[in-house]
Design a protein that fits this description.
The protein is an alpha/beta fold and 255 residues long. The protein has a single domain, classed as TIM Barrel, CATH 3.20.20.10. The protein is 44% helix and 16% strand. It has ten helices and eight strands. An eight-stranded parallel beta sheet has the order 7-6-5-4-3-2-1-8. α2 packs across α3 (71-83) and α5 (117-133) packs parallel to α7 (170-179).
């Protein structure tokens, strides 16, 4: 296989990204004001299916947080971006197999999709091994992904690809993270259920977050909201927004 040569983003592409980024930031500012909030959520730009050159360009435009869904794509992309001067904070936001935990922690500072005990165990072991070889490494940030579907829709499609733990499992998972040593419980993450109004779903998420903080007061973060529903997420108190297509444009169906 011939190794691809890094090609920097064109001036036209950088301008396009800049304009899209400004538009998204303006939406966030308006949504924050409409919600009566003083502090805007942090923006995580999801670069799935887009090249490392876009990560480099976004970093030059002030993007400090980048999200990825697939380990096999994200790892090489993070290396390539770093070789060309971009060192954003990487967030892993996709469904994760336990046997890939160590690979993800090679680049990711935070994992947003933790939804089962076995994955907590795998991430804790990987984080400890990394700390043993790199003692300066900070604990890995963990978000527990919540399944926000109602009982009826969950039972109709128990294997829906959006994933997440049922709300009644959160206390157990939070305890495992808190006891792990090298993991830091950051808060909750969720994706609005397909075909439903996102506002009630995100309000349920905010309620679950409040309940979680009774036992874990430092777990303040709410990772919620994408291109189509960021206003609803901001209104419900999201502190992290995961925005892809509205910043980067349409993804290729061939990738």
């Amino acid at each position: 296989m011939t190794e691809e040569v890094f090609t920097p983003a064109t001036e036209q592409r950088v301008q396009e990204l800049s304009q899209r980024l400004d538009a998204v930031r303006a939406r966030i500012t308006r949504a924050t004001a409409d919600a009566g909030r003083d502090t805007e959520p942090e923006l995580i730009v999801v670069t799935k299916f887009f090249p490392a050159s876009d990560v480099v360009a976004l970093h030059s435009l002030g993007v400090m947080d980048v999200g990825e869904n697939r380990e096999q794509e994200a790892g090489p992309k993070a290396i390539e971006a770093a070789l060309h001067g971009a060192h954003p904070r990487w967030h892993f936001i996709g469904q994760l197999q336990s046997n890939k935990a160590a690979r993800v922690l090679r680049f990711a500072s935070e994992v947003h999709s933790v939804d089962r005990a076995g994955l907590v165990t795998a991430l804790a072991k990987a984080a400890q091994r990394r700390f043993d070889t790199e003692p300066a490494t900070a604990p890995t940030g963990i978000y527990l992904q919540v399944d926000l579907r109602g009982e009826a829709s969950a039972s109709e499609d128990p294997n829906a690809p959006r994933g997440g733990a049922r709300p009644e499992r959160l206390a157990e998972l939070a305890g495992l993270v808190a006891e792990s040593g090298r993991l830091r419980l950051r808060g909750l993450m969720a994706v609005a259920p397909l075909g439903e109004d996102p506002r009630p779903a995100f309000e349920r998420l905010a309620g679950l977050s409040e309940r979680l903080r009774r036992d874990h007061p430092d777990a303040r973060e709410l990772s919620a909201g994408m291109s189509g529903d960021l206003e609803a997420a901001v209104g419900a108190g999201a502190t992290r927004l995961r925005i892809g297509s509205d910043v980067l444009g349409r993804r290729s169906s061939l990738l």
